[in-house]
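Sample A.
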Amino acid sequence: MANKEKKLQRLKASPHGWTHDVLGRLVESYGFEFRGGAKHGYYVDPDDEANFVRIPRHKPVRDYVAQQVAEAIEKRLGR
């Protein structure tokens, strides 16, 4: 549990250089469901369908995508 919290803190502090694989595992560890996609991974909060994030599969992911991932996780946690 502490590992994913540390990763979330690192993501918020430095959104540069993250990959689709790492971000995908992070959102799944917080309970998001993978809904597929060819060029993007589409992850949805099962409790709130409006809370979702699209993560492109190219490397590295742009900074704004990493920030959107952090915001979606924060929204799921109710912060």
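Sample B.
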Amino acid sequence: MQHKKSRLAIAGALTLVSGLTTLAAADGFGPVAQKSGASAVEVADWLNALFGRKQPKKINVQLGPRPYFLVDAMEASPLKKQLQACSEQQPETTDFSIGHRGAALQFPEHTKESYLAAARMGAGILECDVTFTKDRQLVCRHSQCDLHTTTNILAIPELAAKCTQPFSPADAATGKAASASCCTSDITLAEFKTLCGKMDASDPKATTLAQYLGGTPSFRTDLYATCGTVLSHKESIALIDGLGLKFTPELKEPSVTMPFQGDYTQEQYAQQLVDEYKAALIAPRRVFPQSFRLDDVLYWIGKEPAFGKQGVYLDARVDTLEGYDAAVAGMAELADKGVRIVAPPTWALVTLDAQGRIVPSDYAKAARQQGFDIISWTLERSGTLIDGGGYYYQYVTPVINDDGDALKVLDVLALQVGIRGIFSDWPATVTYYANCMGL
């Protein structure tokens, strides 16, 4: 142990004298690790200590009334009793609870306020969906072209004029819906930072701009949407790091033709995402980069293995019957490519047996058989569940009839499917369950 400490001290001296800090950040801490004989993780931790990175204060997790409301709404069952017995425990942050765009049920997604709310609710991992601006800077947005529904860009004339498609009102006579399209690639980072985040919504029947900027679904709220603070990817890294939490950035599919501006390639885009964590001296073990594009995940596995080994393949193939069957049949091939974590939507992991009980699906069984870790999405995104729950519950709709049923599905996902975590628009619900179950 003493020899290892000495090697680390030598590595520190080499870093300071020769400027290897920059090299370490650029190459995943590998070159410094080779010089010291220490692991890349040890070097990352040492550099953090060297430059005085403050240890974050422990978050006082607060769950609010919603988890209790959902437990009370459950039908009588052993699970309900078990969850009720946990009502007075002091919750703690858990990696099982992943903040989907922060806490998007009630806060404008991908804003500072949304992330802070998710952290307060015990989410151990926070998501920044990553896309790029006109000047090729990375920002947190769910889609490259959603600024017209997630921000106030249309209310700023000089920026609205730069939108791919300006606001066009509805026309009841022709049946034309109101529309607009504003992309991060239409504006620079500096311009992006002048925007206010709002709840993701629009009114297709709108005949005025004010009407179009409304439309928030009834199960959400505009109470916290006065002016959400939009963030660059770098700012999200600093915020989440300061909270002592983990990161799951999703590289979003570009809405523009790639290469962007003729020479900005998909590979450069994928590399830029990782480079920003390395520049911030974030240990790779804290980062779970994700993409719906398998090629992105394979790029990270091949070019940035320290990050790629935690790459998450968001599996949307299941959205068609043919794709679902192909995904189940192709699990071994996917594993052979080096993918370790798959993330399908929740409905793809559960089904009903002959007795009408919620059980693991064929996809779930195949993924576990191949040794995959599984993450799923998204809880608390469906509104009320009295009508079966919609998209996220489509394979178990016959047994979904009240809001408490979300916890029944979550219990099967956790204990029978064996997921390692789940995205939620209101992380408090998952945090409550995870703490009660010791996850």
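B remarks: Residues 2-50 form one domain. Confidence is low (pLDDT under 50) at residues 1-27.
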